[in-house]
């Protein structure tokens, strides 16, 4: 059928629609108007008939869709901003509903292959980088397994989940598989069973999958107390690389000698190659890795489910070859020291700032922690902050202010060193309003602070509160118009703004205003007279 689009006249329209409907009903009887149910999803493979009601008076040029580059930029910006806002709302919603859900983090062998030797060397996995599920607490674990089947494409019959456990030596390993009776419980019950956090417990699991000889999935084997699940890492001293190479079950009464052939095959070594085995024990507060005797039973070496054995070619141990880290223990010690030193120098070389960002059109004030090299300047902070916040428009400019006692004390120069401003505590960041960038000859920029008064020892005192701000005032602009602008800024009800009193305040002395504001303020520097402000007197 011709897929072109046909434009009909109003006179033709009823006939054309009737023809289309008749054709659809003939080819798909279930689409007739008398049909109330359908057992399938239909596809609309028919011409589209469009009717324009009335004459189109636009010129040919006007009919061509047209979009400025700036419009596209603005559209993209609003799209990004909308996504950020939705993400923020979703995060808030998740926090508010956290007590209703259980977070389940599922690690697979693929995560171990991906992370070990790249993101980590000790233990097996970083759980913050594995697949995360957010499941209602009352959900039976059996239903969660069906969700895993849909997500990973792994049928339930092939799934066996293990609990992780933190040991006394601070290592974190798969501890034991879930028992059949445990899988009948809810995910919330299981999380509380293995976590100290009753309300926001996480459930961390290892998903064991077994591959058959034809490389297809097979059900996990029966496991007895005699069977130990061990994980293996391979070390290459020439390239100074440690990687995950696999896992398998061994009998607790068996000996490492019994699995040497399998380990060599996994590593691609020749069968006559001698290898050395080491047990990874812990790395906090210091690393510990011990040699494993090949002729001692696994049980005698105190190996248990979830333990890690690292191995390498024996000829590379103590043969005089000038490797920097010739064996597993020396490499793990290096990795531990390097990690510790790296974190230490990161802390030494960075300056941390707390920035309170005030959005131009929203009431929310969000605190951002920014870490930058000590030699950075204010403009670096601004550029970093722009990547973290929602701006009112793409070209918005930011400034950093020092606020003290609810007053603006300083506007930081963009070239000021950040190590000189950390002493001020939390710094305020805000967009610079467009009207401030385009001040007229007679315009004035003044400080505006909220305040209330109280009597102490028969004297009236002023106490500031809330967020201070700048305001552009125009010549001949009366107080009533300024009130309306401030009402719009704070979205204050009209009957409430009528109760506010406006005053010119200088050196803690106030002069209440009733009509003119402009003449009360001198035209000083860019940001006006720092000792004088327009005071808004009202309740908190």
From TrEMBL:
Q: Does the keyword Ribonucleoprotein apply?
A: no
Got a GO cellular component term for this one?
nucleus
* Residue stretches making up the Ubiquitin carboxyl-terminal hydrolase C-terminal domain: 346-540
Q: Which InterPro entries match?
A: USP7_ICP0-binding_dom, USP_C
KW Hydrolase (keyword) present: yes
Q: Which reaction does it catalyse?
A: Thiol-dependent hydrolysis of ester, thioester, amide, peptide and isopeptide bonds formed by the C-terminal Gly of ubiquitin (a 76-residue protein attached to proteins as an intracellular targeting signal)
Query: Which UniProt keywords are present, listed alphabetically?
Result: Hydrolase, Protease, Thiol protease, Ubl conjugation pathway
Family, per the entry? Answer: Belongs to the peptidase C19 family.
According to its UniProt record, the EC number is: 3.4.19.12
Which organism does this record belong to? Answer: Crotalaria pallida
- Gene Ontology molecular function: any one: cysteine-type deubiquitinase activity
- Major enzyme class: hydrolase
Any one of the GO BP annotations: proteolysis
What name does this protein carry?
ubiquitinyl hydrolase 1
Q: Boundaries of each Ubiquitin carboxyl-terminal hydrolase 7 ICP0-binding domain copy?
A: 159-340
